[in-house]
Design goal:
This protein is globular. It has 2 domains: 1-62, no CATH class; 79-157, no CATH class. Strand 1 and strand 2 form a beta hairpin. Strands 5-4-3-7-6 form a 5-stranded antiparallel beta sheet, covered by helices on one side. By secondary structure, the chain is of the alpha+beta class. 21% of the residues lie in helices and 30% in strands.
Length: 165
């Protein structure tokens, strides 16, 4: 169990093995409830820094892996719970690949091959390397438009958050 702190100052314990995703909070996407967003059985906002939370979780969840969000910040994901890689339009806003975890899509800077290798090493749901042809891009665009899979972040992680003041 990992001991964490809410903005109120109250502490609580979280089973690290239940974590799906960890990232630094962003003013453009999150309520002002802490420094780090943890997606597990529910959302948790905590005061600890994302890298410290990830280090603590990784002790209990060795398949936690650091990927890079399209705007450049790390996002830690349980690669065993992931399915991918999934197709994306080539080099769209820094998105080179994507994968699904917890029923939602995470976009990353890593290549399809890098995503596939990480998921395979963690014994996740490995998908074939997407064919980045016009047809697969068109199919993916239609799926996104029709709401095939919800994105983890409303802006897909492409918006660089304002610097902290």
């Amino acid at each position: 169990m990992i001991k964490l702190t809410r903005k109120s100052g109250n502490s609580f314990e979280l089973d690290g093995a239940t974590v799906l995703r960890i990232r630094k909070t962003r003013a453009s996407a999150d309520p002002d409830l802490g420094n780090t967003l943890i997606n597990a059985s529910q959302e948790f906002f905590v005061m600890e820094e994302a890298s410290a939370v990830a280090a603590a979780v990784e002790i209990e969840l060795p398949t936690l892996h650091a990927f890079t969000q399209p705007y450049g910040a790390p996002v830690w994901v349980d690669a065993r719970s992931a399915a991918g890689p999934m197709p994306v339009a080539p080099n769209a806003d820094g998105m080179n690949s994507a994968f699904d975890v917890g029923g939602k899509r995470q976009y990353v800077r890593e290549t399809h091959q890098q995503v596939r290798d990480v998921i395979q090493a963690a014994h996740g749901d490995v998908q074939p390397i997407p064919d980045d042809t016009f047809w697969s891009q068109s199919v993916e665009a239609i799926k996104n438009f029709l709401g095939d899979v919800e994105d983890w972040d409303p802006d897909r992680g492409v918006v660089d958050p304002a610097p902290s003041t």
